[in-house]
Structure formats: structure tokens, C-alpha cells
Amino acid sequence: MMFVHTDTKSPTSPLRALSVLVFLLLLIHLCTGQSLIGSSQPIVATHGDNVTLPCRLDPAEDVTDLTVEWTRPDLDPRFVHVRRSGQELVSKKHPWFRERTSLFINELKHGNISLKLSRVKLSDQGTYRCFIPGKEKLSSVQLFVASDAVSSPVITLAGVDKTTGGVVLHCSSSRWHPEPEVLWLDGEGNLLSAGPTETVRGPDDLYTVSSRVTVEKRHSNSFTCRVQQNNINQTTEAEIHIQDDFFIFLSSSNVPIIIGWAVSLAVCIIVILSLVFLFLKRRQNKTITKRSRSEETEEGEKKKSSKRNKNKGPVVDDLETKRTTSQQNPLLSLDGVQRKEEPEEEVERLRKQLENKETEFKEKQTELHKLRTENQRLKTDLQNLENKLQRKQTDAEREEKRLKDQLESKTKKVKDRGAEIQQLQDQNRDLQRLNQDLENKNKQLERNQTAAEREEERLKSQTKQLESQLSEEKKNRMEAERKMKEELQKTKTEVHLLPKPVSCFYLTDLWMRLRQLKLSMTTNQSQ
Ligand SMILES: *[C@@H]1O[C@H](CO)[C@@H](O)[C@H](O)[C@H]1NC(C)=O
Ligand SMILES: *[C@@H]1O[C@H](CO)[C@@H](O)[C@H](O)[C@H]1NC(C)=O
Ligand SMILES: *[C@@H]1O[C@H](CO)[C@@H](O)[C@H](O)[C@H]1NC(C)=O
């Protein structure tokens, strides 16, 4: 704006006005904000395909005669494609890109300097820069190269977690590029927490990933292993269904513990019962011996009292009789009743106790029996489950065998195909050799032809030379003839002019000369 002011203030000098105009144009040019536009989105290419990396000058301008550079800053040399003075500078570019890059020549006049990259390799992945040095403009494009041979994930049962009773699943997927991530989902699509993903990078730059997860019995028993690469928007997944009874089988791996408990309980009960039984029996024995001993002492007393009876008076006797009567009829004697009732009660009580213990014992026995049957049942269940597992294993084995056979046949096919390819290659080589021979022969032929042509040329020139010689000779001969004729004429006239007598001699002389001339002519002709 300041310059515009100065311009209006001093319009007197046209030169100055022009310079200001030029400056203004330059300013406008700079302010228009011409820029190079690449791609904000990464470009994704599949291994082996062709890809176009976009870049254009905006606003558009013809860049046909400008220098255009495509580079990969991480490489050395960094040049991918350089165009200068209307030609590609092949010597500057990185050998990786030899004969694989091109610009769209017809698009250059529209400011479009997009780069075509053919037969994309995995190593082509990276950030590319387009650059017009004349304009100091620069933009970048990110390229991802996806593998074209990703294998679907494969889920396998990797084992059993003894502490939780869970199943360990293993998932693996190979031939990935770029490196993917592995996710585990349950039947409802919830993310499961898994162990770390193991990644192995092969010599072909392709990645193999694998992951393990421990799953427990869930609502659906279905689990998904998902392998994904977000940069290239690629996802593959596999699902596995685990049947309920598999988990039941796993949890019934606790069965032996239950059985062990039951058995030890039963043993304890038996031991307790036998102890109780022994104790009761001993007590019974004791009471019996006590009773027989008390009877003995009673008899001894009776004998003593009868002796005393003989020595003492009637009062004593009365008393004694009372005693004896009481002895004779135990029911009537209070002392005797008391003494007899005590052990009987004891016996009754013990009997009852014994009965109780017996019923208890019976109960325990039935319980034991029940536990035994339960044990038996669990055993049969276990057996069944084992059988099932066996069956499943054999099924799995059969399946594995089938897959192996398939794989074998496929590998065989591939081998056959390889042999075919080899054969074709051999044929191709033969063909090439034949082609080479043909070319050699062709070259020989050409050489022969040129030799023949040269020979012809030579012959022609010889002929020409001969012809010219001949014509020269002809001319000479004609000249000679003409001379001769003249001479003849002359002589003739001389003859005419000569007097008759002289003529005879002169004629002979003339004859001789003529003959000589003729001879020389014939020799000339033969030559
Ligand atoms: C890729 O480009 C090359 C030439 O650069 C061409 O020969 C080839 O057919 C193209 N391939 C595909 C898949 O377009
Ligand atoms: C630039 O040229 C390429 C090749 O013809 C084309 O695919 C692309 O769309 C062009 N870009 C623009 C912005 O016109
Ligand atoms: C990824 O691919 C899916 C289909 O394969 C498509 O619906 C989705 O739009 C793609 N996303 C991107 C970011 O390209």
C-alpha cells in the first residue's frame, strides 16, 4: 500500500511507474499463495500394484520446463525422480526406483506433478516429498504398502489353566505388512484382556503375529481373534466355539478331590464307629463282671449271718429271718431291690445307647453307601467325559490328517506347478537361445548382403570403367578409321593426280600401306 501511495504522489516518471507496476505484480504473485498440494490422507498400495502419489501446484501453472523433484528424505541418495530441462535425471535417483517412476507428462502443463510408482515393493513404504526448486514449494505424501498375501488367523487350544479352570486359546496370523495388532473378543463383542502380542518379522519383511488368551465359561462360549491394521484398513478374524461340556469337564477335574474327601470321611466314620462299638462292648463286660462279683459277696454274707444266727438271741434271730426272707424274696427286700434296679437301669441305658449307636451306624452306612454310589456315578461321568474327549480327539486327529493330506496335495500341486514353471522357463530359455541364433544368423546374413552389395558396387564400377574404356577405344578406332579414310581419299586423289605409268608402282606401295593399317585395326579391335 505504501508503494501505491508513492506512486500516486509522483506519477511524473513513467519509468518509475513501470517499475512499481512490476513490483506490484511480483507482490501479487507472492501473495497469491501458490502452493504444492500433496495428500493429507496416506496413500495405500498393495504389494506389486502401481500407485499414483498425488501432488499439484495450486493455482495451476505450466511446470513443463521447471525442475521437479520427488524425494524420500530417509534414503541416501534421497532422489526418487528428478526432472530437469524437460528430461529425467536417471543418474541421480536411488537404485530402488530404477525404471519404476514416471511423471504424467501431459499433466505437467496443468501443474500436476503426480508421480506414478510401478510394481510397488514393501520397502517403498514411507514419506515422499514433491518439490519445485524454482518455486521453493514442497509438500509430502505418505505411502503405506499392504501385503497381498495375508493369511487368515488360526485359533488353537493351547492348554488349560489349572488355577482358574479356563481354556488357553492361541491365535496366529502370518504374512502381514505393515505390522498388525491382535484383539480377542467374546461372543458379545467385548474386548478380552490377552497376553502381549508376539511379532516375528520374516526375511521377506512380512510379519507373523500371535497371541494367547485364557477364557472361562461365558454366556456364548464363542470367541473371536481379530487381526487388524488400521493404516491400511485391513481386518481378518477367526472364531472358535467351545462346547459347554468341555468347560464342565474342566471343572470336573475337581472330581477326584471330592471323591478323596468322601473316602476319607467314610474312613473316619468307620473308625469312630468301631471305637464306639469297642468302648460299649468293654463297658458291657465291666458291668457283667461287677454284677457277678456283687452276687458272690451277697452269698458270703448270707453264710456269715447264718453262723451268727446260731450264736445270737431271738431278737437277732428275728432280724436275721427278716433278712433271710428278704433274701429269699428279692422283690420284698428294699435293699435288694435298690441294688438290683441300679445295674438294670444301667443296662437299659446302655442298650438304648447301643441301639442309638447302631441306628447311627446304620445311617452312616447308608450315607457311605450313598457316597459310594455318588462316587460311582461321578466315576462313570468322568469315564463318559473321557470317552467324549477321546472321541473328540480322534475327530480332531482325523480332521488334522485330512488337512494334512489336503496340504500335501496342495504342496504337491504347487510343486507340480513349479516344475511346470521350470519347464516353461527352460522352454523360454531355449526360445531365447533360438532367438539369439536367429539374430546372429540374421546379422550374418546382413553382413553377407552388405558384402554382396559392395561386390556388386565394385563390379558395377568396373563395368562402368570398362564401358568408358570401350567407348574411348571406339572413339579412337573411329578416329583412326576416319584418318584412314581421309588418307585413302587423299591417296585416291593422289592416284588420280598421278600420271598413269607411275601409278603401278605407287599402287603397290599404297596397297602395302593399306594392309598395314587394316592389320593395326584388327589388333585394336581384338584388344
Ligand atoms: C503398472 O505399470 C506398468 C508400466 O509402468 C504396466 O506395464 C503395468 O501393466 C501396470 N500394472 C498394473 C497392474 O496396472
Ligand atoms: C494428476 O494426474 C493424474 C494422472 O493423470 C490424475 O490421476 C490426477 O487426478 C491428476 N490430479 C489432478 C489434481 O488433476
Ligand atoms: C475401511 O473399509 C471398510 C470396508 O472394507 C469401509 O467401509 C470403510 O469406509 C473403510 N475405511 C477407511 C477409513 O477407508
What does this protein look like?
Pfam families: C2-set_3, V-set. Its main location: membrane. Belongs to the SKINT family. Keywords: Disulfide bond, Glycoprotein, Immunoglobulin domain, Membrane, Signal, Transmembrane, Transmembrane helix. It is found in: Membrane. By secondary structure, the protein is of the alpha+beta class. The protein folds into four domains: 114 residues, Immunoglobulin-like, CATH 2.60.40.10; 99 residues, Sandwich (Immunoglobulin-like); 156 residues; 38 residues, no CATH class. It is built from seven helices and 19 strands. The chain has a six-stranded mixed β-sheet, with no helix packed on it. Strands 12-13-17-16 form a four-stranded antiparallel β-sheet, with no helix packed on it. It has a four-stranded antiparallel β-sheet with strand order 15-14-18-19, with no helix packed on it. β12 and β13 form a beta hairpin. α4 runs antiparallel to α5 and α4 runs antiparallel to α6. The longest helix is centred in the C-terminal third of the chain and has 164 residues. It is elongated, with a radius of gyration of 66 Å. The two termini are 105 Å apart.
Lay out the secondary structure:
Layout: H1 2-9, H2 14-31, E1 35-37, E2 43-46, E3 51-53, E4 56-58, E5 68-71, E6 79-84, E7 87-88, E8 101-103, E9 115-117, E10 126-132, E11 137-146, E12 154-161, E13 166-176, E14 181-185, E15 191-192, E16 198-201, E17 207-215, E18 222-229, E19 234-241, H3 244-251, H4 255-311, H5 314-328, H6 334-497, H7 500-526
Helix pairs in contact: 4-5, 4-6, 6-7
The protein binds 2-acetamido-2-deoxy-beta-D-glucopyranose (3 copies).
GO biological process, one term: T cell activation
Subcellular location: Membrane
Region (Disordered): 288-353, 386-477
